[in-house]
Amino acid sequence: MGTRFLGIAGLAALDEVPTVAVVVDVMRAYTVAAWAFARGAEKIVLAESLDDARALKARHPEWVALKDGPSAPGFDLVNSPGLLRSAGLGGRTVVQKTTAGTVGALAVKDADLVLCAGFVVAEATARILRDRAGGSVTFVVTGEDGTADEDLSCAEYIAGRAAGSGADAAPFLRRARLSRAAGELADGVREGAHPDDVALCLELDRFPFAMVASPEDSLMVLRPHPAR
Question: What band does 24 get if pLDDT is binned at 50, 70 and 90?
Fold first, then answer.
């Protein structure tokens, strides 16, 4: 399996659309998405902008909209696994807009397969890549223009597992724990956070499913795989 690791901006320089893309946002978009599915959400619509998210919520009042940062009119929840883990989302559709994670997924929406991942679904994601048995995979490292250590370490860990490596997860998790994003969350620099967010983002293989994003009725929709 050939692999490459790119930031969102680096995708623009590619000559062709990636065949397989794994979009990694550990802190916190795709940890939150996994928790949403664990809390019963049916699907997650990845919104292109805050205005689009509000418009979707206005058209579908029964949907649950969430965003980065503090609470805001038009949104029900914020992008925090610690705050989301007690939410009742059974059968609901969630609209998610974040600074980097959703942007990364939308940037590769034309790929044949788009997986969205964090440490909480690492092994399930690697399993899908192993099952494809070959080909190239583009890992989209969403944070800090491709340099965020929590996302890069997770991407490298998943790539190793997909290639059959029995790599110890501990060094990768340690890098993520020492990342700038983890420090900002722990220090309360980022708004809309919970004290447990860092620990929840570093729970390796907390969930048994991967997450696949694909176009549905002009929207980019994330679903658990295999479906519950």
Answer: very high
With a cut of 60, say whether residue 92 has pLDDT above it. Answer: yes
Average pLDDT of the segment spanning 145-159: 97
Tokens 């994601």 sit at which residue? 125
- Whether 55 shows a pLDDT value over 70: the answer reads yes
Angle made by CA atoms 105, 219, 121, in degrees to the nearest 5: 40
| Among 62, 60, 95, 40, residue whose Cα is nearest residue 222 | 95
For 227, which DSSP code? -
- Beta-strand runs (E) in the chain: 2-6, 20-24, 43-46, 64-67, 77-78, 93-97, 113-117, 136-141, 210-216, 219-225
Contact 217, 225 (CB under 8 A): no
Which of 102, 130, 100 lies closest to 36 in space, CA to CA?
A: 102
- CB within 8 Å of 126: residues ≥ 6 apart: 158, 161, 162
3-state secondary structure 15-68: CCCCCEEEEECCCCHHHHHHHHHHCCCCEEEECCCHHHHHHHHHHCCCCEEEEC
Grade residue 164 by pLDDT with cuts at 50, 70 and 90.
confident
Is the CA virtual torsion 128, 134, 140, 141 positive or negative?
positive
The answer to whether 159 touches 117, Cβ cutoff 8 Å, is: no
Under the banding of pLDDT at 50, 70 and 90, the label for residue 228 is: low
Helix (H, G, I), strand (E, B) or coil at 71: coil
